[in-house]
Amino acid sequence: LLLKRLDIHGFKSFATPTTFAFDRGITAIVGPNGSGKSNVSEALRWVLGESQYSNLRGRKTEDILFAGSDRRAPLGMAEVVLTLDNSDGDLPLEFSEITVARRAYRSGESQYLINGSRVRLKDIQQLTAPLGQSHTIIGQGLVDAVLSQRPEDRRGLFEHAA
Amino acid sequence: LLLKRLDIHGFKSFATPTTFAFDRGITAIVGPNGSGKSNVSEALRWVLGESQYSNLRGRKTEDILFAGSDRRAPLGMAEVVLTLDNSDGDLPLEFSEITVARRAYRSGESQYLINGSRVRLKDIQQLTAPLGQSHTIIGQGLVDAVLSQRPEDRRGLFEHAA
Amino acid sequence: MANSFSETFTEVAAEFEQTFKRLFGGGTAKLSQRDEEDEPGGVDIVAQPPGKRLQGLNQLSGGERALTAVALLVAIQRVNPSPFCLLDEVDAALDESNVVRFKDELRDLATTTQFVVITHNRGTIEGADTLYGVTMGDDGVSRTISLRLDEAIQAVEEQQTASV
Amino acid sequence: MANSFSETFTEVAAEFEQTFKRLFGGGTAKLSQRDEEDEPGGVDIVAQPPGKRLQGLNQLSGGERALTAVALLVAIQRVNPSPFCLLDEVDAALDESNVVRFKDELRDLATTTQFVVITHNRGTIEGADTLYGVTMGDDGVSRTISLRLDEAIQAVEEQQTASV
Ligand SMILES: Nc1ncnc2c1ncn2[C@@H]1O[C@H](COP(=O)(O)OP(=O)(O)OP(=O)(O)O)[C@@H](O)[C@H]1O
Ligand SMILES: Nc1ncnc2c1ncn2[C@@H]1O[C@H](COP(=O)(O)OP(=O)(O)OP(=O)(O)O)[C@@H](O)[C@H]1O
Ligand SMILES: [Mg+2]
Ligand SMILES: [Mg+2]
Predict the structure, then answer these.
(1) Residue B33 CB less than 6 A away from ligand 2
(2) Is D91:D69 a contact under the CB 8 Å cutoff?
(3) Closest protein CA for atom 27 of ligand 1
(4) Is the dihedral of CA D9, D10, D11, D16 positive or negative?
């Protein structure tokens, strides 16, 4: 399984449609403080089915919608689309390319899609569960948490690995 | 009041007598990971009267004694001497130069000296209290703590300032 | 001559707005006291980096949080200066341009406050008057050497190219 | 085909000793399970960087803790690789020579695991195959540009010299 691309539109500071194309190997994301790098990490977490907004530096869905700035109005929708290369059959779907999409509206409505078909949030969560989230997305400042967590929590890392 | 010099011997990784001489302005301390820079900060904290070993990444006095390495035996004593320039009379002592010394022995004994005379730990703490410890020594990784502390703790910063 | 808490608080809050602006090169921030009845002693911070909207601390980026913390520490220093101040890697999360503003703020304060800064950042090192290098030998013992600025910069860069 | 916890644990512990050695350029570390009766699920780590004595995690330096955390994450990846892994500034506390070993370890893992690393570190950037720069305009909107390695290094350095 490979990440192919991440399309972000309206999620946090990405008010305009933005694409990250990933290759094999290592992709580095660089930029000044506050430019939006961690927001990319949170967009990936969100599209993979994150349901705890406290893990996205927020408290509710509204917090991930582009909130506007002194020069730009807030947006009413956030959409993140993840495109995966499944040609090795890692995910149990009959497609060599899989798209996972998540949309949230200021009205409170949410949509979840796999390859364009509407699904529920838990369908996305079940699809992505084998990807091992606890050791696949390491948030900023959480390196220490890996070590300083109470031993019982650290055990959680191993159980995901098991 | 100015820091003039800090002499460290036997405190944590400073097994041999080591001197830092400070001038007016800014002194930068640099070096690789694990070289001993934060140990210098803890030596200063300790000689100013720190009594909570959890603030020194330890639990008891023994933790700040040089513990030895595969090439060197542990030491039985730690001594830190701080020399201050008091020519502006900031500290209420009749000396233009003040030395504060603290020693700890593996036997458990401790000694505290101001200008060579034996005093109690609380005499050192009272002398240095007006220097405002909570906003004068900022430990590694504690920048976030300044902000993320519960509001009641943050208030503590202000009370020291008051 | 200790001020009352609320007098000091008002002064620190006013100073904090200024130091935030300087360190961020713009923007605004507010320090406020919470209601004494429902949350005695509570202190709140909201911050608006230049060009952005007003946010709570939890929404700021890692580097923005660090810079905001520095702004608060500096504000407290300016209201009630301590004779010296030791900072252990408070600039770790800052990008190059924020490090420069951080260094400029310290240089300004350094006329009245003596600073000892532990840092890995070249920009901060360039602002120092005195430099100490600390190394640990194979024997587990720390030693120090005083360095000139060009030597310290070179040591940092040599470490990098030597290992590459 | 999920292994039992203790099978996986044993494998991760063995791997962790190896990854620690590689990242620290020597030394040893041990991962152990605590007694199930008095502390079920407890996991302990002791570490001995090269030339130093055995220590608990709390006694390690900031950079040594970060590198030990990376060693554990890498060990888990090697025992049960996930197809991709995103790391947000896990190298922030590392000095230049540790960054190089970190980068080498990622390059080795990258043959089987796809990495996205958010970083301010030049050494890490030099290890990347693809580079994206992210910037925020005065309008509070983030945008991205793909960069070549030399452009990314230059952007980081220009930011520094421009502001000096
Ligand atoms: N809902 C939102 N709408 C608009 N902007 C937002 C929203 N949520 C967060 N932001 C902005 O995104 C910025 C944070 O970006 P991010 O945390 O990704 O920065 P970063 O590049 O990781 O920086 P650092 O290097 O300091 O970690 C903040 O300035 C914040 O104002
Ligand atoms: N009691 C002791 N005896 C001998 N060595 C000790 C003792 N306590 C700590 N050390 C050593 O001191 C080192 C830690 O030093 P310190 O935390 O000052 O590093 P640092 O230079 O601040 O590194 P970093 O840049 O990673 O923050 C550790 O390697 C530890 O082994
Ligand atoms: Mg970030
Ligand atoms: Mg340190």
Answers:
(1) yes
(2) no
(3) C62
(4) positive
pLDDT at residue C41 greater than cutoff 90: no
E-only strand ranges, A24-146: 26-30, 77-85, 97-105, 110-114, 117-119, 137-138
pLDDT in tens, D62-108: 999 999 999 999 999 999 899 999 999 999 999 999 999 999 999 99
Where does the pLDDT of residue C164 fall: very low under 50, low under 70, confident under 90, or very high at 90 and above? very low
B112: tokens are: 């505290």
Report the chain A residue with the minimal C-alpha distance to residue C66.
A33
Q: How far apart are CA D68 and CA D52, in angstroms?
A: 14
- Chains in contact with D, where contact requires at least 3 CB pairs less than 8 Å apart: A, B, C
Judged by CB atoms closer than 8 Å, whether chains meet at A69 and C93 is answered as: no
Measured CA distances, B143 to C66, C159, D119, D134 (Å): 6, 27, 20, 25
Distance A67 CA to ligand 1 centre (A): 11
Residue D164 burial (10 A CB sphere; 0-12, 13-18, 19+): middle
Quote the CA–CA distance of A3 and D92 in Å, as a whole number: 25
**Residue C37 burial by Cβ neighbours in a 10 Å radius (0-12, 13-18, 19+):** exposed
Ligand 1 near C61 CB (within 6 A): yes
Cα C88 to ligand 4 centroid, rounded to whole Å: 7
The atom number, within ligand 1, closest to the CA of A65 reads: 1
| Nearest chain D residue (CA) to B34 | D61
The three-state secondary structure class of B101 is strand
Tell me: the pLDDT tens digits for B51-60?
Answer: 999 999 999 9
For chain C, give the mean pLDDT. Answer: 87
